[in-house]
Write a structure and sequence with these properties.
CATH architecture of the largest domain: 3-Layer(aba) Sandwich
Distance between the termini: 30 Å
Number of strands: 13
Number of helices: 9
Radius of gyration: 20 Å
CATH superfamily of the largest domain: P-loop containing nucleotide triphosphate hydrolases
Structural class: alpha/beta
CATH topology of the largest domain: Rossmann fold
Low-confidence stretches: 43-49, 70-77, 206-210, 212-216
Oligomer: single chain
């Protein structure tokens, strides 16, 4: 994931009607700094509906466009998506970004895990940023849906769209709720998905952020809980971290949807990044030096059936 020469993948997620296609059209229309390709999902086998609507900043029809049928890059079209990524990179070697627009009912966790797995097999592209679009005016209703909550949890960048259709008090309440279930996501607000697009192309990946919470705390919204640990781990090596995180995800009766963090690893010179989605995770070195010789690890866990006591016991057990 640290190979800067790889093509960057930007994943657009969001429920039906959240503004993903509008954002995509806006990006292609106004940006002229990068070589970009697009992979888009549709439910219908009658393809070609969206492609003619995509134009570049010169007003010409955007030609680096690939549509996947049946609306599910997380299922039957998964292999086609990887083929499309390979095609763009081979035929257009100057491509810098591939934007994937998932359909509104897609669970992003399956796609994220697939991209991580293929990165391990030398896929010439890496998942750089996950953008989650949220229709502000439908938030209260959609929050009851598990798929909607997953789209929020996995996002690096949360775009609160259609804010003009909500009262300011409602927006404040939505922001508070988003901060609880995805405290590390960067939050932007928009009308018709019009934002500074550099915030997408130059988004700071969540695994390079230093979490700013300073204390252990537990919060719960509905049936989704969040635990943040700021814990001293001076004697845990990278290999031991792999064992402990694996135990959390595979052996215990926990339902972890998302886990991320910055880990101190014994005998290493830099901090290590932890990124995990459901039953897949990776621990990789960052460029962040260990500050002031401190051995503090910071871990964020979002899921169900999780408790501070159990997580701490796993981490601190010998």
């Amino acid at each position: 994931m640290n190979n800067t020469n790889k093509c960057k993948i930007i994943l657009l997620t969001g429920y039906l009607g959240s503004g993903k296609t509008t954002l995509l059209q806006y990006i292609l229309k106004v940006q002229n700094l990068y070589q970009v390709a697009v992979i888009q999902n549709e439910f219908s086998d009658e393809m070609g509906i969206e492609a003619p609507l995509m134009v570049d900043n010169n007003g010409d029809i955007f030609d680096s466009f690939f549509e996947l049928p049946n609306g599910c890059i997380c299922c039957s079209a998964k292999g086609q998506m990887m083929t499309a990524i390979q095609y763009f990179i081979e035929k257009k070697p100057n491509i810098q970004f591939i934007i994937i627009e998932s359909n509104g009912l897609a669970d992003p966790s399956s796609l994220i895990k697939e991209l991580w797995a293929d990165q391990g097999l030398n896929l010439p592209a890496e998942l750089a940023t996950i953008v989650g679009l949220i229709p502000s005016h439908k938030f209260k209703t959609l929050y009851e849906l598990e798929i909607f909550r997953k789209q929020i949890i996995h996002a690096d960048l949360l775009l609160l769209n259609f804010q003009d259709l909500c009262q300011e008090d409602d927006i404040i309440l939505i922001e508070k709720q988003l901060k609880i279930i995805n405290p590390n996501g960067k939050l932007l607000k928009s009308v018709r998905a019009q934002i500074d697009i550099q915030s997408i192309f130059e988004a700071e990946k969540a695994d390079n952020k230093i979490f700013d919470q300073e204390h252990i705390h537990f919060e719960e919204v509905g049936n989704i809980a969040k635990i943040f640990l700021n814990i001293d781990t001076p004697n845990i090596t990278q290999q031991e971290w792999n064992i402990k995180i694996g135990q959390m995800l595979w052996e215990e009766d926990l339902k972890i949807m998302r886990i991320k963090g910055l880990l101190f690893c014994k005998d290493e010179q830099v901090m290590y990044s932890l990124q995990g989605v459901e039953d897949i995770f990776e621990i990789t070195p960052t460029n962040l030096p260990i500050s002031n010789q401190q051995s503090i690890s910071k871990i964020l866990i979002i899921g169900q059936k999780i408790t501070e006591e159990l997580i701490k016991n796993i981490i601190l057990s010998h």
